[in-house]
Amino acid sequence: MFIDFSTVDKASFEADICIIGAGAAGFSSAVTLMNSGLKILVVEGGGHGVNARAQALHTAILSGHPHSGIHEARARIIGGTTTKWGGQALPFMKEDFEGRPHVELSGWPVTLDDLKPYYKEAETILGTDHSVPFNYNPWKRSNITNAAFLNQGLKLFVTKWCKVPNFADQHSDKIESGSNISLLYNANVVEVLPTDDFGSVKSLRIRALNKKEGTIKARFFIAAGGALETVRLFLASKKFGAAGLGNSSGLAGCYFQDHVAATVGEVLPTSAKKFHDIFDPFYKDGFKYLPRIKLTPLYAAKQQALHASAQILFAGDNTVITDIKNILSAVKNKKAPALRILWSALAPLKLAGVIKTLWRWKINKRGPSAGKGPIWLEVHSEQNPLRESRVSLSETVDELDVPKICLHWIISDMTIETIRKTALLVKSEFESTNIGKVILEPWVEDGAVNPSCLLTDVYHQCGGLKMAASDKDGVVDSSCKVYGINNLYVASSAVFPTSSFSNPTMTIIALSIRICRTIEERIKKENLLFSGMKIFKHEKDVA
Ligand SMILES: Cc1cc2nc3c(=O)[nH]c(=O)nc-3n(C[C@H](O)[C@H](O)[C@H](O)COP(=O)(O)OP(=O)(O)OC[C@H]3O[C@@H](n4cnc5c(N)ncnc54)[C@H](O)[C@@H]3O)c2cc1C
After folding, report:
1. Residue 2 and residue 82 in one domain
2. Second label for 40, Cα 20 to 30 Å away, from 27, 318, 322, 478?
3. 98-141 per-position pLDDT tens digit
4. Contact between 281 and 87 (Cβ < 8 Å)
5. Is the pLDDT of residue 534 over 70?
6. Ligand 1 nearest-atom number relative to CA 402
7. 288 C-beta closer than 6 A to ligand 1
8. Pocket mutation for ligand 1, best pick of 44, 53, 81, 235 (most atoms within 8 Å of C-beta)
């Protein structure tokens, strides 16, 4: 059931488990708990559509390196940032979880093996094809060419893509029809309140943009508001102490990271066809896959570098692709394509391109990628965790009286060196295996030039509520439970100690599922159902 907090008569709500946020982590947690028999309440600040006032709650104050994603890459809406994302899924590597002597503060208190079963479940929630393993070798297919790299430092791999990236589209029907789940929207959590002994969360204070106030009580809470907003909520919850919630270590807000991207050069392929055969996306049973290049962890370690990947950006004319997509979308919606689009696609000069692209796409299951034009090489690097790269609170407040975020984002020399080393290796491999020539940007070859102004974030915010083996070193333990708080878990990339080069969401989802299983186990083991916890009946207790 969906409930609009701003209009419903009721102001106080209760549940067995309350999930803060209806984005990737929030929906994943709700779907995982769907058949638990427990009463689940998801509380979401946004509504069904984009709302400029809700979005403005994310306005932050920046210092340090410019960070575009803090304003562009977060959505306060049901579905969260999955309403904007691409849906590209990739698990972290074994080495991402291990301590690396050359990367200070690396090493997670969990291993890849700990997460493997949850990665598997995450695929069901993402809606990717389980039958295709991540080490699937598509290059066995006749029309897909492998890059025969000579250097063991580079490896080609593929990412899997969701068919329905927006989680509100993919999963809302389960919330709508689930007898034990409600989603309370237009309800912003503005503060977390403690029990008398400060050892647990007692309730949440919620507020709508029309100033309606309310509370939510629950036995367990899962904080899934996205990395930055979850850190903000923790720091703003001053009833736990002046430093905020979960901040006895003084580390809440520290070690903020993103993936750092740079366009490092232009590729001039030896054979355009061969190049497209290696790097164009391809399709199998209707699912999309994208070939990318990674620095192997062994090579990264030898080079004292971070984990990084490289990808190819075709920046040529893509009006043919746009025309085809518009026509197919009109046909799918049982509408006649606009004359303007038909005219454009059928123009004699374009028609050959349209037929070629359609053939390659529908028959060969490749592409579509842009036509003639520049081909850029882009490198993405993880960051080494830095305490000074951090989120704190401003003295100015948003429309709901919650202090705004101050973000001080730092990019280290080690990250820049990793990007350089990856670019140089890709150039050398492309040229020695005759894939093509790479014209690198001057700063890549000249270490004296500082490329800072050319580096951007990749919309993958991580860190701020670090997972650690001890409460002195982090904010949450290996199960993502907040140290010192009995009933609060964080389902977010905020807990990542380091962030791999892989896109983060599959790992966020795997951790969310693991949190739900941990809570279910605790309820069973600690006999919580029979020791005073009330089991709420859906119709009676929630709006
Ligand atoms: C353009 C773009 C492309 C991307 N592509 C990829 C990709 O291909 N692969 C990938 O892995 N990642 C990608 N990402 C990143 C991905 O979208 C995020 O990692 C993911 O959505 C994070 O999930 P989340 O649940 O932690 O946060 P979100 O999805 O942001 O959800 C948080 C939810 O909590 C709500 N909320 C926040 N604070 C409060 C509060 N105080 N009270 C109530 N509700 C609150 C928000 O409104 C939101 O609905 C992309 C991002 C962007 C912007």
Report:
1. yes
2. 478
3. 999 999 999 999 999 999 999 999 999 999 999 999 888 888 77
4. no
5. no
6. 41
7. no
8. 81
* Residue 212 in contact with ligand 1 by CB distance below 6 A: no
Residue 493 Cα to ligand 1 middle (Å): 10
Q: Is the CB of 233 under 6 A from ligand 1?
A: yes
Closest atom of ligand 1 to 88 CA is 8
Find the 248 Cα to ligand 1 centroid distance in Å: 27
| Tally of domains in the chain | 3
How many other CB atoms are there within 10 angstroms of residue 341's CB atom?
Answer: 17
The strand pairing partners of 390, in sequence order, are 408
Q: What is the mean pLDDT of residues 363-368?
A: 71
- Ligand 1 lined by 502 (C-beta under 6 Å): no
Q: Taking the model in full, what pTM does it have?
A: 0.93
Note the pLDDT tens digit of each residue in 86-105.
Answer: 999 999 999 999 999 999 99
Give the domain CATH number at 493.
Answer: 3.50.50.60
Mean per-residue pLDDT, 304-329: 81
H or E segment to which residue 185 belongs: strand 181-185
Residues 38 and 54 grouped into a single domain: yes
Task: Measure CA 67 to chain center.
Answer: 16
* C-beta atoms surrounding 323 within 10 Å: 23
What type of residue is 96? Answer: D
The verdict on 339 and 486 lying in the same domain is no
Nearest CA to ligand 1 atom 13: 85
26 lines ligand 1 (CB under 6 A): yes
User: From atom 39 of ligand 1, which residue's Cα is the shortest distance away?
Assistant: 225
Residues 16, 117 within the same domain: yes
Domain residues for 512?
A: 1-127+164-255+461-543
Angstrom distance (rounded) from CA 470 to CA 431: 48
Nearest 5°: the CA angle 91, 94, 98 is: 125
Are residues 488 and 202 in contact, defined by beta-carbon separation less than 8 angstroms? Answer: no
